[in-house]
Amino acid sequence: MCSRSLAGSSCGVISITISDRAPMKNRVAFTLPQLLVAVAVGSLLVVTLLPTLQSDRENLRRAVCANNLREIGQAMTMYSDDFRGSFPSSAPITDESGINLLKREVGIGCSGCDPFPLNNAGGFTAFARYLVKHHYIGNTAVLLCPSAKVIGISSTPVSVAPTWQTINWNNLSYFYVVKMTTQLPTKSGAAATNRCYMLCADRSNASSVSSTPDLDPTSPHGTDGRNVLFTDSHVEWITGSSVSYLVNPIHNDWGTYGIDSPTTSPQVLGQQDHI
Q1: Cα dist. 109→26, 136, 162 in Å?
Q2: Is the distance from CB of 271 to CB of 235 less than 8 angstroms?
Q3: Which residues on neighbouring strands pair with residue 228, listed in sequence order?
Q4: Which residue of 65, 143, 163, 209 has the smallest Cβ count within 10 Å?
Q5: 234 band by pLDDT with thresholds 50, 70 and 90
């Protein structure tokens, strides 16, 4: 019969030793050539997949950019509902590119603004401030394409304005064709039906006297193309560097600024700002 004590059992001691180490001869190890091959294969996969990943990112940015323009189009349509079919304009002022536009609304003389706007703004900047101030556009980030990194021939970095009061030319990456309406154009010989016209689009960073210069490599999407908003609020991706052919119907139906009536002839705003 076994007796028990604090020291253990008197029946004998059974000792079991389990080794957690495998014998050296059973271990698996990579040789240097095998490691070099693995590294080479991994590098090849990275090089192969990286352009695809970059392309997917750009496609996503283009989609967000198109959605931004769609929101701007909806904002302008709501504005036109409030202003007898007119898209944002300071009519009857004939030249919409000066810095004195809408001073009382979005300039340093703004009545009741707290805080006061950064400066007196003209061109598309003035109208962008107005649309955000009056909640036609809910977020200043909508005014900037995510593919845009710099703006103008000086390659000034772009950024999202924190408030409507601080919206400036480097917080916008689109241009705007001002003085059109949702009504039929009034120019003699214009189209008898209400066609869709280019209203906004990604701006180019190229230096040009053209109101809509061709794209250059520093433009938001390079020279691949750009998103274009039309007057019925739909957005299209236009492949290629030029949208000049989309300006021709505007000139034909609405007029050419400097030739036809200055009060109704459209102007491109935002393209030549601080190039």
Answers
A1: 84, 22, 20
A2: no
A3: 201, 236
A4: 209
A5: very high
Burial level of 3, CB count in 10 A (0-12/13-18/19+)?
A: exposed
Sequence-distant (6+) residues with CB within 8 A of 262 are 94, 95
Q: Which stretches of 107-192 are assigned E, i.e. beta strand?
A: 150-151, 156-157, 174-178
DSSP 162: S
**207 pLDDT more than 90:** no
Cα distances from 168 to residues 90, 95, 97, 171, 213, in angstroms, run 18, 19, 14, 5, 21
Per-residue pLDDT tens digits for 152-171:
888 899 999 999 999 999 99
* CA angle 207–224–52, rounded 5-degree value: 135
Kindly report the backbone phi and psi dihedral angles of residue 98, in degrees, each rounded to the nearest multiple of 5, phi listed first.
Answer: -80, 165
| Burial of 242 from C-beta contacts in 10 A (0-12 / 13-18 / 19+) | middle
In angstroms, rounded to a whole number, what is the distance separating the alpha carbons of residues 263 and 96? 10
Exposure string over 75-91, b if 16+ CB within 10 A, otherwise e = bbbebbeeeeebbbbbe
Q: How many Cα atoms sit within 13 Å of 153 on the Cβ side?
A: 9
Q: The tokens of 123 are what?
A: 């061109």
Q: What is the pTM of this model?
A: 0.78
Element (H, E) at 239: strand 235-239
Cα angle 79, 84, 88 (rounded to 5 degrees) comes to 40
